[in-house]
Amino acid sequence: MSPTLVRHQLPHSGSTRCDDPPAPARSRARTRDWAEIQERMLVPLYEAAYDRLGIGPGTRLLGLGCGSGLALLLAAARGAQVSGVDADESRLELARERLTPDGMPEHTRVVSGGLEAAAPGDAAFNVVTAFHPVGCVSTVEGLTASLTAAAELAERGSAVVLGGWGPVERCATAGVLRVAERLSDPPGDRVVGSRGWRPSGRDDLEDLAERAGLRPDGSGRVACPFGYADLASAVRGLLSTGLFDAALEAAEQRQVEKELAEALHPYQRADGTVWMPNVFRYLIARTR
After folding, report:
1. What tens-digit pLDDT sequence spans the chain (288 residues)?
2. Region Disordered: which residues (predicted)?
3. Which of 26, 45, 126, 213 sits 20 to 30 Å CA-CA off 52?
4. CATH code, 221
Protein backbone atom coordinates (compact mmCIF):
# COMPACT_ATOMS: atom_id res chain seq x y z
CA MET A 1 0.00 0.00 0.00
CA SER A 2 1.59 3.24 -1.12
CA PRO A 3 1.32 6.51 0.81
CA THR A 4 -2.10 8.02 0.05
CA LEU A 5 -3.59 11.40 0.92
CA VAL A 6 -7.22 12.30 0.31
CA ARG A 7 -9.37 15.33 0.99
CA HIS A 8 -11.87 14.38 3.68
CA GLN A 9 -15.27 16.04 3.26
CA LEU A 10 -15.92 17.64 6.66
CA PRO A 11 -17.45 21.12 7.04
CA HIS A 12 -14.96 23.91 7.51
CA SER A 13 -15.17 27.68 7.45
CA GLY A 14 -12.86 30.56 8.15
CA SER A 15 -13.10 34.29 8.59
CA THR A 16 -14.84 36.14 5.76
CA ARG A 17 -14.68 39.74 7.00
CA CYS A 18 -14.16 42.43 4.36
CA ASP A 19 -10.99 43.70 6.09
CA ASP A 20 -9.27 40.31 5.80
CA PRO A 21 -7.00 39.28 2.91
CA PRO A 22 -8.65 37.28 0.10
CA ALA A 23 -9.57 33.77 1.30
CA PRO A 24 -7.07 31.82 -0.86
CA ALA A 25 -4.15 34.04 0.18
CA ARG A 26 -5.21 33.90 3.83
CA SER A 27 -5.53 30.12 3.67
CA ARG A 28 -2.09 29.69 2.11
CA ALA A 29 -0.45 32.01 4.63
CA ARG A 30 -2.00 30.25 7.61
CA THR A 31 -1.12 26.87 6.17
CA ARG A 32 2.53 27.89 5.91
CA ASP A 33 2.42 29.27 9.44
CA TRP A 34 0.99 25.96 10.65
CA ALA A 35 3.64 23.91 8.89
CA GLU A 36 6.60 26.19 9.69
CA ILE A 37 5.70 27.35 13.21
CA GLN A 38 2.94 25.43 14.96
CA GLU A 39 2.78 21.82 13.80
CA ARG A 40 6.07 20.80 15.40
CA MET A 41 4.67 21.60 18.87
CA LEU A 42 2.80 18.29 18.81
CA VAL A 43 5.77 16.11 17.83
CA PRO A 44 6.16 14.79 21.41
CA LEU A 45 2.54 13.62 21.27
CA TYR A 46 3.08 11.84 17.95
CA GLU A 47 6.30 10.19 19.09
CA ALA A 48 4.89 9.04 22.44
CA ALA A 49 1.96 7.32 20.75
CA TYR A 50 4.19 5.76 18.09
CA ASP A 51 6.63 4.49 20.71
CA ARG A 52 3.82 2.96 22.75
CA LEU A 53 2.34 1.17 19.72
CA GLY A 54 5.67 0.15 18.19
CA ILE A 55 4.95 1.86 14.88
CA GLY A 56 7.26 0.50 12.18
CA PRO A 57 7.41 -1.98 9.30
CA GLY A 58 4.14 -3.85 9.15
CA THR A 59 2.14 -0.83 10.34
CA ARG A 60 -0.60 0.29 7.95
CA LEU A 61 -1.61 3.68 9.32
CA LEU A 62 -4.52 5.95 8.48
CA GLY A 63 -4.21 9.52 9.78
CA LEU A 64 -7.47 11.45 10.22
CA GLY A 65 -6.97 15.21 10.08
CA CYS A 66 -3.43 14.65 8.85
CA GLY A 67 -2.91 18.37 8.16
CA SER A 68 0.35 19.12 6.39
CA GLY A 69 1.60 15.60 7.04
CA LEU A 70 4.26 15.83 9.73
CA ALA A 71 2.79 12.99 11.82
CA LEU A 72 2.56 10.82 8.71
CA LEU A 73 6.14 11.66 7.77
CA LEU A 74 7.37 10.58 11.21
CA ALA A 75 5.47 7.30 10.92
CA ALA A 76 6.81 6.69 7.42
CA ALA A 77 10.35 7.30 8.69
CA ARG A 78 9.79 4.40 11.08
CA GLY A 79 8.88 2.14 8.16
CA ALA A 80 5.08 2.41 8.33
CA GLN A 81 2.83 2.51 5.29
CA VAL A 82 0.74 5.66 5.65
CA SER A 83 -2.44 7.22 4.30
CA GLY A 84 -4.00 10.50 5.37
CA VAL A 85 -7.23 12.49 5.08
CA ASP A 86 -7.97 16.12 5.86
CA ALA A 87 -10.65 18.74 5.21
CA ASP A 88 -8.14 21.52 4.47
CA GLU A 89 -6.95 21.30 0.89
CA SER A 90 -4.15 23.84 1.37
CA ARG A 91 -2.66 21.78 4.22
CA LEU A 92 -3.09 18.64 2.16
CA GLU A 93 -1.06 20.21 -0.66
CA LEU A 94 1.86 20.61 1.74
CA ALA A 95 1.43 17.02 2.89
CA ARG A 96 1.70 15.91 -0.73
CA GLU A 97 4.93 17.87 -1.11
CA ARG A 98 6.39 16.25 1.99
CA LEU A 99 5.33 12.69 1.25
CA THR A 100 5.78 12.64 -2.52
CA PRO A 101 8.92 14.69 -3.23
CA ASP A 102 10.66 14.61 -6.60
CA GLY A 103 12.50 11.39 -7.11
CA MET A 104 10.09 9.19 -5.17
CA PRO A 105 9.03 5.95 -6.90
CA GLU A 106 6.18 6.20 -9.37
CA HIS A 107 3.96 3.97 -7.25
CA THR A 108 3.70 6.69 -4.58
CA ARG A 109 0.14 7.87 -5.08
CA VAL A 110 -1.73 10.98 -3.97
CA VAL A 111 -5.46 11.29 -4.68
CA SER A 112 -8.40 13.50 -3.77
CA GLY A 113 -11.81 12.33 -2.67
CA GLY A 114 -13.70 11.23 0.43
CA LEU A 115 -12.64 8.87 3.18
CA GLU A 116 -13.55 5.93 0.99
CA ALA A 117 -10.67 6.87 -1.32
CA ALA A 118 -8.27 5.97 1.48
CA ALA A 119 -9.56 2.41 1.63
CA PRO A 120 -6.59 0.01 1.69
CA GLY A 121 -6.03 -2.31 -1.20
CA ASP A 122 -4.33 -5.55 -0.23
CA ALA A 123 -4.68 -5.28 3.57
CA ALA A 124 -6.79 -3.32 6.04
CA PHE A 125 -5.33 -0.59 8.24
CA ASN A 126 -4.12 -1.68 11.66
CA VAL A 127 -3.61 1.79 13.21
CA VAL A 128 -5.81 4.90 12.97
CA THR A 129 -4.73 8.26 14.42
CA ALA A 130 -6.77 11.36 15.21
CA PHE A 131 -4.20 13.67 16.78
CA HIS A 132 -6.15 16.91 16.23
CA PRO A 133 -6.87 17.87 19.85
CA VAL A 134 -10.39 17.30 21.08
CA GLY A 135 -11.62 20.63 22.46
CA CYS A 136 -12.59 22.19 19.15
CA VAL A 137 -16.28 22.36 19.93
CA SER A 138 -17.67 21.92 16.43
CA THR A 139 -15.40 19.10 15.32
CA VAL A 140 -16.56 16.44 17.78
CA GLU A 141 -19.63 15.34 15.83
CA GLY A 142 -17.72 15.16 12.56
CA LEU A 143 -14.80 13.38 14.21
CA THR A 144 -17.15 10.76 15.68
CA ALA A 145 -18.51 10.02 12.22
CA SER A 146 -15.00 9.90 10.77
CA LEU A 147 -13.76 7.50 13.46
CA THR A 148 -16.76 5.24 12.92
CA ALA A 149 -16.11 5.16 9.18
CA ALA A 150 -12.36 4.68 9.65
CA ALA A 151 -12.95 1.73 11.98
CA GLU A 152 -14.69 -0.05 9.13
CA LEU A 153 -11.47 0.21 7.10
CA ALA A 154 -9.36 -1.26 9.89
CA GLU A 155 -8.75 -4.76 11.16
CA ARG A 156 -10.66 -5.88 14.23
CA GLY A 157 -8.72 -4.90 17.35
CA SER A 158 -6.72 -2.20 15.56
CA ALA A 159 -5.37 0.68 17.64
CA VAL A 160 -7.06 4.07 17.33
CA VAL A 161 -5.14 7.01 18.84
CA LEU A 162 -7.09 10.06 20.01
CA GLY A 163 -5.30 13.24 21.06
CA GLY A 164 -6.42 16.07 23.32
CA TRP A 165 -5.43 18.84 25.70
CA GLY A 166 -4.48 17.87 29.21
CA PRO A 167 -5.92 19.43 32.39
CA VAL A 168 -6.43 23.17 32.07
CA GLU A 169 -4.20 23.82 35.09
CA ARG A 170 -1.35 22.02 33.31
CA CYS A 171 -1.72 23.93 30.02
CA ALA A 172 -0.42 27.50 29.97
CA THR A 173 -1.84 27.96 26.48
CA ALA A 174 -5.37 27.45 27.81
CA GLY A 175 -5.34 30.94 29.27
CA VAL A 176 -4.31 32.39 25.93
CA LEU A 177 -6.97 30.44 24.07
CA ARG A 178 -9.62 32.02 26.27
CA VAL A 179 -9.16 35.08 24.05
CA ALA A 180 -10.69 33.03 21.25
CA GLU A 181 -13.51 31.90 23.53
CA ARG A 182 -14.25 35.44 24.71
CA LEU A 183 -14.17 37.09 21.29
CA SER A 184 -16.28 34.43 19.61
CA ASP A 185 -20.01 34.63 19.24
CA PRO A 186 -22.05 32.66 21.78
CA PRO A 187 -21.91 28.91 20.92
CA GLY A 188 -25.48 28.90 19.64
CA ASP A 189 -24.66 31.64 17.13
CA ARG A 190 -21.46 30.17 15.71
CA VAL A 191 -21.22 29.20 12.08
CA VAL A 192 -21.47 25.44 11.78
CA GLY A 193 -18.02 24.07 11.00
CA SER A 194 -15.98 26.89 12.54
CA ARG A 195 -13.31 25.61 14.86
CA GLY A 196 -13.90 27.06 18.27
CA TRP A 197 -12.24 26.14 21.56
CA ARG A 198 -13.40 25.12 24.99
CA PRO A 199 -11.52 23.79 28.03
CA SER A 200 -10.98 20.04 27.93
CA GLY A 201 -13.07 17.77 30.10
CA ARG A 202 -11.45 14.94 32.04
CA ASP A 203 -13.22 12.23 30.04
CA ASP A 204 -13.40 13.91 26.60
CA LEU A 205 -11.35 11.24 24.84
CA GLU A 206 -13.14 8.34 26.52
CA ASP A 207 -16.52 9.88 25.65
CA LEU A 208 -15.47 10.29 22.03
CA ALA A 209 -14.28 6.68 21.85
CA GLU A 210 -17.57 5.45 23.28
CA ARG A 211 -19.60 7.47 20.76
CA ALA A 212 -17.52 6.00 17.94
CA GLY A 213 -18.00 2.44 19.19
CA LEU A 214 -14.36 1.99 20.23
CA ARG A 215 -12.98 0.18 23.27
CA PRO A 216 -10.52 2.20 25.46
CA ASP A 217 -7.23 0.39 26.01
CA GLY A 218 -4.90 2.74 27.87
CA SER A 219 -3.85 6.38 27.89
CA GLY A 220 -0.91 8.63 28.58
CA ARG A 221 0.20 12.22 29.13
CA VAL A 222 2.93 14.05 27.26
CA ALA A 223 4.64 17.41 27.77
CA CYS A 224 4.12 19.53 24.64
CA PRO A 225 5.49 23.02 25.37
CA PHE A 226 4.68 25.72 22.85
CA GLY A 227 7.84 27.70 22.11
CA TYR A 228 8.24 30.58 19.65
CA ALA A 229 11.11 32.76 18.49
CA ASP A 230 9.19 35.96 19.24
CA LEU A 231 5.75 37.38 19.94
CA ALA A 232 4.87 37.81 16.26
CA SER A 233 5.65 34.15 15.55
CA ALA A 234 3.50 33.10 18.50
CA VAL A 235 0.53 35.09 17.21
CA ARG A 236 0.92 33.67 13.70
CA GLY A 237 1.34 30.14 14.98
CA LEU A 238 -1.72 30.22 17.21
CA LEU A 239 -3.89 31.84 14.54
CA SER A 240 -2.89 29.02 12.17
CA THR A 241 -4.50 26.38 14.43
CA GLY A 242 -8.04 27.32 13.40
CA LEU A 243 -9.01 27.79 17.06
CA PHE A 244 -9.42 31.53 16.47
CA ASP A 245 -11.58 31.21 13.34
CA ALA A 246 -14.82 31.87 15.24
CA ALA A 247 -13.22 34.91 16.89
CA LEU A 248 -12.11 36.21 13.49
CA GLU A 249 -15.68 35.85 12.26
CA ALA A 250 -16.96 37.93 15.17
CA ALA A 251 -14.23 40.59 15.43
CA GLU A 252 -11.72 42.41 13.25
CA GLN A 253 -8.44 40.62 12.69
CA ARG A 254 -6.41 43.48 14.17
CA GLN A 255 -8.43 43.26 17.40
CA VAL A 256 -7.94 39.49 17.64
CA GLU A 257 -4.20 39.84 17.03
CA LYS A 258 -3.88 42.69 19.56
CA GLU A 259 -5.69 40.82 22.34
CA LEU A 260 -3.83 37.60 21.56
CA ALA A 261 -0.48 39.40 21.80
CA GLU A 262 -1.49 40.93 25.13
CA ALA A 263 -2.44 37.49 26.48
CA LEU A 264 0.97 36.15 25.40
CA HIS A 265 3.02 38.84 27.18
CA PRO A 266 3.26 36.96 30.51
CA TYR A 267 4.95 34.10 28.66
CA GLN A 268 7.53 36.24 26.85
CA ARG A 269 11.07 35.85 28.18
CA ALA A 270 13.75 38.49 28.49
CA ASP A 271 15.30 37.39 25.18
CA GLY A 272 11.98 37.89 23.37
CA THR A 273 11.11 34.22 23.01
CA VAL A 274 7.70 32.93 24.09
CA TRP A 275 7.43 29.73 26.13
CA MET A 276 4.24 28.05 27.35
CA PRO A 277 4.42 24.64 29.07
CA ASN A 278 1.53 22.31 28.25
CA VAL A 279 0.49 18.74 28.89
CA PHE A 280 -1.41 16.81 26.24
CA ARG A 281 -3.28 13.54 26.62
CA TYR A 282 -3.70 10.60 24.29
CA LEU A 283 -6.04 7.63 24.45
CA ILE A 284 -5.41 4.28 22.80
CA ALA A 285 -8.71 2.66 21.82
CA ARG A 286 -9.44 -0.51 19.86
CA THR A 287 -11.83 -1.30 17.05
CA ARG A 288 -14.41 -3.95 17.85
Report:
1. 556 776 654 433 333 333 444 456 667 899 999 999 999 999 999 999 999 999 999 999 999 989 899 999 999 999 999 998 888 888 888 888 888 876 444 433 444 556 777 777 778 999 999 998 765 555 677 889 999 999 999 999 999 999 999 999 999 999 999 999 899 865 544 443 344 567 778 899 999 999 999 999 999 999 999 999 999 999 999 999 989 988 999 999 999 999 999 999 999 999 999 999 999 999 999 999
2. 1-30
3. 213
4. 3.40.50.150
